[in-house]
Amino acid sequence: MPRVKVRKTYKLFIGGAFPRSESGRTFEVDGHNAALASRKDARDAVKAARAAFGKWSGATAYNRGQILYRTAEMLEARRSEFPAEQVDDAVDRLVWYAGWADKLAQVVGSANPVAAPYFNISSPEPTGVVAIVAPQSFLGLVSVIAPVIVTGNTCVVISSSLESIVFAEVLATSDLPGGVVNILTGHASEVAPWLATHDDVNGLDLTGVDGAELATSLERQAGETLKRVLRPSDPKWTDDPGTGRMTAFLETKTVWHPKGV
Amino acid sequence: MAFEYAPAPESRSIVNIKPSYGLFINGTFVDAKSGFKTVNPATEEVLAEVAEASKADVDNAVKAARAAFPKWTKVGGRERAKYLFRIARIIQERSRELAVLESLDNGKPIRESRDVDVPLVAAHFFYYAGWADKLSYAGFGPNPKPLGVAAQVIPWNFPLLMLAWKIAPALACGNTVVLKPAETTPLTALLFAEICQQAELPAGVVNIVTGAGPTGAALVEHPDVDKVAFTGSTEVGRIIAKAVAGTRKKVTLELGGKAANIIFDDAALDQAVEGIVNGIFFNQGHVCCAGSRLLVQESVYDEVLTRLKRRMSTLRLGDPLDKNTDIGAINSAEQLARIKELSQVGEREGAQAWSPPCELPRNGFWFAPTIFTGVSQAHRIAREEIFGPVLSILTFRTPAEAVEKANNTPYGLSAGVWSEKGSRILAIADQLRAGVVWANTFNKFDPTSPFGGYKESGYGREGGRHGLEAYLATR
């Protein structure tokens, strides 16, 4: 008799753990049952992301770069579990962003020559908790998460793909602190409004939103708490991503101090 | 004790205020169907009648800006720079006139309009003029493109300075603009329109539409603007953020604040007290980045309070045109009512108010510099932006508590920290969630220094290289 295969249960990824949806619901993706995230799951994920923010944003850029690079190593090791035509680019994308961790502040920061005896320096800082509606493709998923977290943000990702949860297994084995990335499988139309209206979410990446009506409604909801919003787009994910996805969720802090003896 | 000074008023004869002003559209002043009056808040004297732009007027202004846009782009960076340098120079040449007019229309002391506002306005145009032909080196890719027509709505607290923050980078990047000054302070913007004429700036590049909220809404919601830049209240910021949802419009918002000014026990206390006074009483506290929440380490609380009260007793409130005046008039009856209301709420909620003996002029809108002690974090005067000369004082014991309290606000525009210990300054500055941190100083501004908030204080930066991003197609 042939051996019976042990199947995997696909769950959510919140605070570094893999819980089922508190709603007890699932939806079918490619013949598998994936957890169908609810409002409560979204709120739990925001809580986990907020709890992780202080330590992750306060980690050294070198440390964040090391961890991002580690995610690339882990993905490389598990490449067979991902779409063959995208996995090389996804690994390379993680390596590319890993290198940005300790360089971006030098590229987008500045020492400002003010017309008075003051030390004056501007540095980028992460915005906080970012909610991401991920695009369908695996390379797209990696390409929206990496730029958000490499700068010190934490995030809650909504995805309807099974690969997103397999990718969570990569993240969970990369020394990435729990809660930095939280992944909810489900429907953007159901879950995203809870994140767009959540007072403790600072940014909203609408890249993967399907349909102008939902995108406009989410952007309008985000306006109530003045979230930073990245509007939907359909980029060619193999193109050079530029720095725009990182700077969209960065603040600039300028510190003044007098000079004197 | 206060020294007696003889009055030293600046002459207002340098300014020629016209009885009425039209809208500045396509290089000329045009009449509107209706108008409103702008008053001197120090005397309630009517200064002029100003046109109120209707939706149709706004549409004409946007059309003029749209028509001018391709030509202005074609002018090229080098020539655009020279127009901006011209404007900067004319502002310097007419600086006294601008300062007096600003103080008349706004109520701010001439010392501030003359020494802070107008010099910064000229410096801002000078700074961005130099960028106009160097945009390829700004870090936004080779030959970055302008957005198109910018809709700009500015507040009444720094009328001309906010105009400069909006118009200078927009023009340098090759955009054309329609700007709406605040309803209560339109006059320096209209004088700026004359300066544009004097500089022979091509028609339609700068358009000024005066009016109140509905005029601003019509401008922001106009389908043919590519960029919205707003400085003002968080309340209106939310409305704008929602109004632009689903459009192509790029948005920058510079909104309210409730800045913490943190005094550690090792601070140079006399300097810190100067910083506290400058932080909250500069410009009558009509400053979005005002240090309106004072956090004092418990061990020096009594000492700081004593010195602060002594210093406040020497502040001179009165005629904005008097060169000795420290605190001018509140900008409008409406704003005065809000300050009074929140102060009453402060007392009702159990905080104790204190003001130095201070005689208020009979006419005009005035509010004595006020501090509140016994304030808790839950009090409305510790949470809401008062936008007046009212300081809420709280205490803390440890650095961690100071940071916790400082960040306990939905705002994140600015913060202050006072300590003689360098490592502490840097560690605290790192932890404050605010766009500008003034360490051992407060309320300093410079065209090279990016300004803007975290959280509900808005997004985008004005000033410096960072300020270019708001007016370029960067992604």
The amount of helix of chain B comes to 25-40%
How many beta-strand segments of chain B? 18
For the largest sheet of chain B, list the strands in their spatial order. 13-14-15-12-11-16-17
Overall CATH architecture of chain A: 3-Layer(aba) Sandwich
Taken as a percent bin, the fraction of beta residues of chain A is: 15-25%
Distance between the termini of chain B: 59 Å
C-alpha Rg of chain A, in Å?
Answer: 19 Å
Architecture overview:
The complex is a heterodimer of chains A (261) and B (475). Chain A has 261 residues and is of the alpha/beta class. Chain A contains nine helices and ten strands. Chain A has helices spanning 39-58, 61-77, 84-100, 104-108, 138-150, 163-172, 188-196, 212-223, 244-247; strands spanning 26-29, 32-35, 110-111, 118-126, 129-133, 154-159, 181-185, 203-205, 228-230, 250-258. In chain A, strands 7-6-5-8-9 form a five-stranded parallel sheet, sandwiched between helices. Chain A has a three-stranded antiparallel sheet with strand order 3-4-10. Chain A starts with 25 loop residues before the first strand and ends with a strand. The relative contact order of chain A is 0.19. Chain B has 14 helices and 18 strands. In chain B, the strands form four sheets. Chain B has a seven-stranded mixed sheet with strand order 13-14-15-12-11-16-17, sandwiched between helices. In chain B, helix 9 links the parallel strand 11 (260-263) and strand 12. The N and C termini of chain B lie far apart (59 Å). The interface between A and B is large, with 38 and 43 residues.
Topology of this protein?
The complex is a heterodimer of chains A (261) and B (475).
Chain A: E1 26-29, E2 32-35, H1 39-58, H2 61-77, H3 84-100, H4 104-108, E3 110-111, E4 118-126, E5 129-133, H5 138-150, E6 154-159, H6 163-172, E7 181-185, H7 188-196, E8 203-205, H8 212-223, E9 228-230, H9 244-247, E10 250-258
Parallel strand pairs in A: 5-6, 5-8, 6-7, 8-9
Antiparallel strand pairs in A: 1-2, 3-4, 4-10
Helix pairs in contact in A: 1-7, 2-3, 3-5, 7-8
Chain B: E1 20-21, E2 23-25, E3 28-30, E4 34-39, E5 46-52, H1 55-75, H2 77-93, H3 95-106, H4 110-131, E6 149-153, H5 159-172, E7 176-180, H6 187-198, E8 206-208, H7 213-221, E9 227-231, H8 234-243, E10 250-254, E11 260-263, H9 269-281, E12 293-297, H10 301-312, H11 333-348, E13 352-354, E14 370-373, H12 380-383, E15 390-396, H13 399-407, E16 414-418, H14 422-431, E17 436-439, E18 458-459
Parallel strand pairs in B: 1-5, 6-7, 6-9, 7-8, 9-10, 11-12, 11-16, 12-15, 14-15, 16-17
Antiparallel strand pairs in B: 2-3, 4-5, 10-18, 13-14
Helix pairs in contact in B: 1-7, 2-4, 3-4, 4-5, 9-10
